[in-house]
Amino acid sequence: MKRSPLDGSEHTNWIYLFPGLLLYAAFVFGPIVAALGLSLTSWDGLTVPKWVGLGNYIDLFSDNRFYIALRNNAELMIFYCVLPLGLGIGLAACVWNLKQQEQLALRTFLFLPYIMPTAVLGIIWAWLYNPAFGPFNQFLRAVGLGMFALPWLGDFNFVLPAVGIVATWYFFGFCMVIFLTGIQRIDPSLFDAAKVDGASARKTFFWITLPLLMPEIRVVLLLTVIASIKSFDLIFTMTRGGPANATLVPNIYMYQLGFELNRFGAAAAIAIVGALLTFAINFAIHRLVGSKSKGMA
Q1: 3-state SS of the chain: helix, strand, coil percent to 5?
Q2: Residue 144: which pLDDT band, with cuts at 50, 70 and 90?
Q3: In contact, 86 and 70? CB cutoff 8 Å
Q4: How far apart are CA 13 and CA 18, in angstroms?
Q5: Distance (Å, rounded) from C-alpha 214 to C-alpha 294?
Q6: Whole-number mean pLDDT of the chain?
Q7: pLDDT tens, position by position, 175-210
Q8: Of 2, 17, 146, 209, which is most buried with the most CB atoms under 10 A?
Q9: Is 93 helix (H, G, I), strand (E, B) or coil?
């Protein structure tokens, strides 16, 4: 039997791992450590950083705008996570029953938004929402519903849902493809047995399809939650956090502190808090959904 190069000693194998570890340290671990160190200083980007200890974190947790950003981010999670997940599962269950060619066409069509850069989508949707010549308001006026034509991105009550709907439109096709892949993994004999027992489509979905899709639900939750916490380019291109902080999220606030006010230490503190928040939520999802998916395996 031919020996693999990896069958050598442990010290020899470290040589193969070294390039990858070096790149990881340079481009991932190094910047994280640098951000952590920077968050403990006061730095304007020009002068020598001044050590302030936990001062940036104390200021951050006494800053009302930071709490507004967190609240907006929590509300956006409904549009980034909950709605795409629900729509994705529902559509996957419907599309699964179609013929293969129809299924392929719908899958491709609904997945298209996900391959586009969100910054480009933000610019396009900002034009669609334009109160003067945007197609949405033009359509409402054309059908006699001009009273509902609003400055969508300038209205304090509707701007967050208006931005969130774009995120839902961006993610739900991706979620549907993930769930379709999961349905293909389920043993077809389970569906045949349910059909023989006279189970309705609703019971088959809730008692067979949904429980066995727990591993895919966990993956979708992890990816969409991370995307919601990292949300920046879509909101930046559509509203820049306005009007009056109505769409301000931590990453937009971090950008404003760092690149508009030259408070890089405070901006780094937001980045560290965001990273810790991401780890905590992902850990909770692993604990809550992961245990259920193992039970279904």
Answers
A1: 75, 0, 25
A2: confident
A3: no
A4: 9
A5: 9
A6: 89
A7: 999 999 999 888 889 888 988 888 888 888 889 888
A8: 209
A9: helix
